[in-house]
Design brief:
The complex is a heterotrimer. By secondary structure, chain A is an alpha/beta fold. Chain A contains 17 helices and 13 strands. In chain A, a hairpin with a 2-residue loop joins strand 4 and strand 5. In chain A, helix 8 crosses helix 9 and helix 13 packs across helix 14. Classes of the chains: A alpha/beta, B mainly alpha, C mainly alpha.
Chain lengths: 378, 267, 286
């Protein structure tokens, strides 16, 4: 017994020496590559905004590092913020319609309006997006947008059929219509199908009831409810032939990959998703975050956003648009960001065919969400 | 009987089919990870290391791997320690409320992970602990302890009860009997338990997803890729994950089985 | 060693080994679950939880049709998975227990333990690719001139996922209990002229009852609470209670409501577990 105690320690200094050498060898590559430790910026965003294709070059050039937490849907975003201690997130990419709530809940900082060049914006609406300013103070800056309509597989639906939300009810699509699993864009589309037009979010009891009925009548066509990945895959592998609640932001990625899918803005009108940056309340890195937002509004930043690998969005600045047309004419043409294209985003807005996504005016988000749960279980 | 042989044959064939089913997703995932296609079908695309290159060059994945390793090591040590204490208490003592005591120790696997996740996140954020690596360790220790307890208890049941008593009779204190007899005897089980609980922690995604915040573990990264832009990176990471957990589980088993029949140690 | 010897006075030594689990489980297992119950009476205002005592969440969830339909569906799927898995596992366990050598059995069990501890998530994703309309299974069917069949986003997909999750564990538990059945008993039944199936159902199954029931119980617990398969392979059509919990926490931060759903699940599992354990250990009426 007690063998270990009697065991002689052979040459302790040599062993120590070896240990330190080994440690030094392992650590060496790290030591040499370290400049100053990069400033870490915590980002809360939709999937893809913190990926290398967007932030990689910027991180390298500015010695910062983004830690991204991804969410899906504005309700999800608010929930995540409220679950974390204040100051957790430095940069918040939110859907524009939720900025008002972010502000009301005191989750975001006031921003320096002079730091951003609003004159370069492609549309007047983008300068003063609803909810982004409060009492003349700036709280959020729009960075990109995209249009939602009918997304379909070209082998299953004709372009004419896709020009109306009625296309989702096509008998051949039974079990092959998918939903992006978030109530807001889906019910918005159903509201448009009901002919509510610009009043799509402003529904009185009867109109709301009618929207619910229309939605329920689609239920037998539906093959699944998907998150981002699921939506993407089920369109790609043909499990779903049409998808409600999305637009080019998903089909665009697949189209670039050669899949026979497309999105159109139907006769009844389409919905615009708008993405805006805000600075998280209590962030200790406000200067760094401001610099990054400024960068994303430069032509280079805008092009990077338009080409984002996870999902495309259109440029919102004149400079960005010009650079995109120059450096990537193919993507500019595909996404309609050229003069005279049928799906030219700014023209669609000016023609009144696009409605900015918003939260329901006469019902609570909760009511919509509740109905969505009902619908999923129907 | 010929008929018996036929039945035997079909049963064995069925057994093989069942094993194929159980292992199919694991093998398929490894194959897909070397396949150039994003959505593999038959015939397979060409051989490619693209997905491996992607993950190796991704600093976020490296960071998650480090977090995972820290969590797995910490929670396996904690769980094995607590599991050992519990197993020994059960082996050595009878006491009031032993039934509830054991239930308390063994119940966690019967609670659905998503419920554990919800409860854990709510509880930990009440104390400002959510979102930290520590919170994952705390939660994983709860999930791992029953496994540790079970393995060590199994080993202790092979120990001759008179062994410890003999040591006391020779004048050893309880503490030194523990050190000289019980711990050495349980050592294979302790090592097995460390490996197995590390594997459990390394693969756990639901609770980690809820409580981890920005400190993602590997399974959480996988979940985010699956929820986001699904691509075969998942398979490439998966291959590493499979290799890690299989190695751990195999080591755990080999060590445990090797010592299974070496009942009471001599000396 | 006598009982008296074991029942020593509780001393520092004994407490050292006994206390860690009690302290740890109360802090990080019982604590969270009790808090979950308390949380179900909280309310959420402006995305923030307010600690109070109101029945609002209970009233809301229990009065919703979607909760009940989702409850029935989850319960049904878990029951079906339990029956299916038990039937699928039994012949394999039977073969392992009675038809192969001890060595083969040891190796088989060795290899069954491995998948039980390997990433369920990656396996699910693998099935996703295999089961897709353009995936491996359908391309194989294609060679036979069949299909393509819709397997994803149906209950079939969900079941494949559940089986992946539970079969290794179930075969393990069944084999363990079957191999403890007294071989002489089977011999005796044969000698008395009992047919094969009658021997199985009259002799083997009753002797291995406890193991079979515990296996089935685990099967039920795992499938009842799993959210990965119903979501990724089943397309959440319709959604299960676990998916409902995730949805509820995501949208509007309604944790109290999620807690209500969670408690209903826990109570269900508790009742099922209690009944089946009682049933398992009940002495057969002679």
């Amino acid at each position: 017994m007690n063998e270990t105690k009697t065991k002689p320690l052979t040459n302790p200094t040599r062993r120590k020496f070896l240990k330190y050498t080994a440690a030094a060898t392992i650590a060496a590559p790290y030591i040499t590559s370290v400049k100053a430790a990069p400033t870490e910026i915590n980002m809360l965003a939709w999937y893809g905004h913190g990926e290398p294709d967007i932030v990689g070059a910027y991180e390298e050039a500015n010695n910062v590092k983004f830690n991204a937490k991804y969410y899906a849907g504005g309700d999800n975003m608010l929930a995540l913020i409220s679950q974390s201690p204040p100051g957790t997130y430095d940069l918040i990419l939110s859907d524009a319609e939720f900025v008002l709530q972010l502000n009301a809940a005191g989750y975001i900082e006031e921003m320096d309006a002079a730091a951003y060049n609003f004159d370069d914006m492609l549309h007047d609406d983008f300068k003063q997006f609803p909810g982004h300013w409060k009492d003349g103070k700036l709280f959020s800056v729009m960075v990109r947008g995209g249009h939602l309509g009918v997304s379909y597989n070209k082998n299953a639906m004709t372009a004419e059929e896709a020009m109306s939300y009625k296309g989702f009810w096509k008998p051949e699509l039974k079990g092959k219509v998918g939903h992006f699993d978030w109530h807001l864009p889906n019910l918005g589309m159903m509201s448009l199908q009901n002919g509510n037009g610009a009043k799509l979010w402003d529904l009185d009891d009867d109109a709301w009831k009618a929207v619910q009925e229309t939605t329920m009548s689609l239920r037998s066509q539906v093959g699944g409810f998907f998150d981002y990945g699921g939506t993407f895959n089920s369109l790609k592998n043909g499990e779903m032939q049409a998808m409600c609640g999305i637009g080019d932001w998903i089909t665009g990625v697949l189209e670039k990959d050669g899949a026979p899918v497309a999105s159109v803005i139907p006769e009844e009108g389409g919905i615009q998703f708008t993405e805006s940056y805000s600075i998280g309340k209590g962030s200790s890195k406000q200067a760094e975050v401001q610099k990054f937002i400024q960068h994303m509004l430069t032509p280079e930043g805008q092009v990077r956003s338009a080409e984002m690998a996870a999902y495309p969005g259109f440029c919102i600045t004149k400079g960005g648009l010009a650079l995109l047309q120059e450096t990537n004419p193919k993507e500019a043409a595909r996404s309609g960001q050229v003069e005279g294209a049928v799906n030219e985003p700014i023209r669609l807005i000016n023609e009144g065919r696009i409605h900015y996504r918003d939260i329901p005016t006469q019902q609570g988000l909760e009511d919509w969400n509740d109905f969505w749960s009902d619908y999923k279980n129907a | 009987m010929i008929k018996d042989g036929v039945i035997s044959f079909f049963l064995k064939a069925y057994l093989v089919v069942l094993f194929i089913f159980v292992f199919a997703p694991i093998i398929a995932s490894v194959i897909f990870s070397f396949n150039s296609d994003r959505f593999p079908t038959i015939p397979l695309g060409s051989f490619s290391l693209e997905w491996y290159k992607l993950i190796i060059n991704d600093p976020d994945i490296a960071k998650a791997a480090i977090t995972s390793i820290i969590v797995a090591i910490s929670s396996s040590i904690l769980a094995t320690f607590i599991g050992f204490c519990t197993a020994y208490s059960d082996y050595r003592y009878d006491f009031r409320f032993k039934g509830p005591y054991l239930a308390l120790a063994l119940l966690p696997p019967t609670v659905p992970l998503i419920i554990m996740a919800l409860a854990m996140l709510a509880w930990l954020s009440k104390f400002g602990l959510s979102g930290s690596v520590l919170s994952i360790v705390l939660a994983h220790t709860v999930l791992c302890t029953p496994f540790a307890m079970a393995i060590i208890r199994l080993r202790l049941s092979q120990m001759d009860t008179s062994l410890e008593a003999a040591a006391w009779n020779l004048g050893a204190s309880e503490w030194s009997a523990m050190r000289e007899i019980v711990v050495p005897f349980a050592r294979p089980a302790i090592i097995s338990s460390l490996c197995l609980t590390a594997a459990v922690s390394f693969d756990e995604f639901a609770v980690a997803w809820f409580v981890s915040g920005l400190n993602k573990t590997i399974p959480v990264v996988i979940l985010e890729i699956v929820q986001g832009n699904i691509d075969p990176r998942v398979n490439a990471i998966g291959t590493f994950v499979f290799l890690t957990s299989m190695t751990l589980v195999i080591i755990a088993q080999v060590i445990f089985m090797k010592n299974q029949n070496k009942g009471a140690v001599s000396g | 060693m006598t009982q008296a010897n074991k029942k020593r006075r509780v001393d520092l030594y004994a407490l050292t080994w006994r206390l860690p689990i009690i302290v740890w489980q109360f802090l990080f297992f019982v604590g969270p679950l009790v808090f979950l119950i308390a949380m179900s009476f909280f309310v959420v205002k402006n995305y923030r939880m307010v600690e109070t005592f109101e029945l609002a969440s209970w009233e809301r969830i229990l009065s919703r049709d979607y909760f009940w339909s989702s409850y029935l569906y989850t319960f049904g799927m878990a029951t079906f998975a339990t029956v299916l898995a038990t039937m699928l596992a039994f012949p394999a366990s039977f073969a392992l227990a009675f038809k192969v050598s001890a060595n083969t059995r040891r190796w088989a069990m060795f290899f069954l333990i491995v998948p039980f501890f390997t990433s369920y998530l990656v396996k699910t994703f693998s099935w996703y690719v295999i089961l897709a309309k353009t995936g491996v299974v359908n391309s194989l069917f294609g060679y036979l001139g069949l299909g393509p069949y819709t397997l994803l986003n149906t209950w079939i997909g969900t079941m494949v996922g559940f089986m992946t999750l539970v079969l290794p564990l179930l075969v393990l538990l069944q084999t363990l209990s079957l191999s403890q059945v007294d071989k002489n008993l089977i011999e005796a039944a044969h000698n008395l002229g009992s047919g094969r199936f009658r021997t199985i159902f009259n002799v083997i199954v009753p002797s291995a009852k406890i193991g079979l029931i515990v296996g089935a119980l685990f099967c039920f617990i795992l499938s009842f609470g799993d959210f990965v398969s119903p979501y990724y392979l089943g397309g959440s059509t319709p959604q299960t209670l676990s998916i409902l919990i995730i949805d509820t926490t995501k949208s509007g931060n309604q944790w109290p409501r999620a807690a209500v759903v969670a408690i209903c699940m826990m109570v269900t599992l508790f009742v099922i577990a209690f009944t089946s354990i009682v049933f398992a250990y009940r002495k057969p009426k002679s």
